[in-house]
Amino acid sequence: MVPNAFRMLANGPAALQGYLGLRGALSHGTLDETMQRRIALAVSEINGSEYCVAGNTYLARMGKPDDAEITANRNGASNDPYADAAVRFAAKIARARGHVSDDDVRAAKAAGYTGTGG
């Protein structure tokens, strides 16, 4: 099965190439796939995208999280303290559409995130 988003992108080769380039660039970051899924679940829920929530839940389950972790992620949090700081920060970014405070950035850095992807 090809997700609808990819089907749409395939109609515009430049758009598909741009998307794949972005995904490739992001794959070199320091956030592992589990963390990326946690954040994707939070952001999908905030954006109200049932399609993305379903897809990200399916992909997250491949990493074998328990139901409590998936629920926490969908609520913009995590049961793991280190992951919780990242998911909460990402949720703030999504809710505020990128407008976070210096205190929010400092809190993420205090939790161990460097601002360079990990």
Folded structure, characterized:
The relative contact order is 0.12. This protein folds into 2 domains: 1-30; 31-118, AhpD-like, CATH 1.20.1290. It has 118 residues and is mainly alpha-helical. The longest helix is centred in the last third of the chain and has 15 residues, at 81-95. Helix 3 packs antiparallel against helix 4 (50-61), helix 3 (33-46) runs parallel beside helix 6 and helix 6 packs antiparallel against helix 7 (102-110). The mean pLDDT is 88. The N and C termini lie far apart (32 Å). The chain has helices at 4-10, 13-26, 33-46, 50-61, 67-74, 81-95, 102-110.
Q: Which terms summarize this structure?
A:
118 residues; mainly alpha; AhpD-like; 2 domains; 7 helices; 0% strand; globular
- Mean residue pLDDT: 88
What is the end-to-end distance? 32 Å
Spans of 5+ residues with little confidence (pLDDT < 50)? none
Superfamily at the CATH H level of the largest domain?
A: AhpD-like
Tertiary shape: globular
Report the structural category: mainly alpha
Query: What is the N-to-C succession of helices and strands?
Result: HHHHHHH
**Name of the CATH class of the largest domain:** Mainly Alpha
State which percent range the strand residues make up. under 5%
CATH topology heading of the largest domain: AhpD-like
What is the CA-based Rg, rounded?
15 Å
Question: Secondary-structure map with pairings?
Answer:
Elements: H1 4-10, H2 13-26, H3 33-46, H4 50-61, H5 67-74, H6 81-95, H7 102-110
Helix pairs in contact: 3-4, 3-5, 3-6, 6-7
Can you give me a brief rundown of this structure?
The protein has 118 residues and is mostly helical. The protein has seven helices and no strands.
